[in-house]
Specification:
- The longest helix is centred in the C-terminal third of the chain and has 9 residues.
- The chain is built from three helices and two strands.
- A two-stranded parallel sheet has the order 1-2.
- By secondary structure, the chain is of the alpha+beta class.
- The mean pLDDT is 82.
- The protein is globular and about 35 Å long.
Length: 64
């Protein structure tokens, strides 16, 4: 997370769960950490840190 030559980190959600403390602690915009589904594990929006942060920024009225 400290490399300046990386802009986006794609990580499967099941692996992100193993290092959730590091994913949650990362607050800088770059590199962006995006959790993606894997073939073996279904995607759970409740565990997605980016989605949880976005819900805190936007209200339903903002999306109308």
């Amino acid at each position: 997370l400290n490399r300046e030559d990386i802009g986006i980190i794609l990580i499967s959600q099941c692996l992100a769960e193993l290092i959730r403390h590091a994913v949650e602690a990362h607050a800088r915009p770059l590199p962006a950490v995006l959790e993606i589904p894997s073939k073996e594990h279904p995607y759970d929006p409740a565990k997605d840190s980016v989605l949880r942060r976005a819900r805190g920024v936007f209200t339903p009225d903002d999306l109308r």
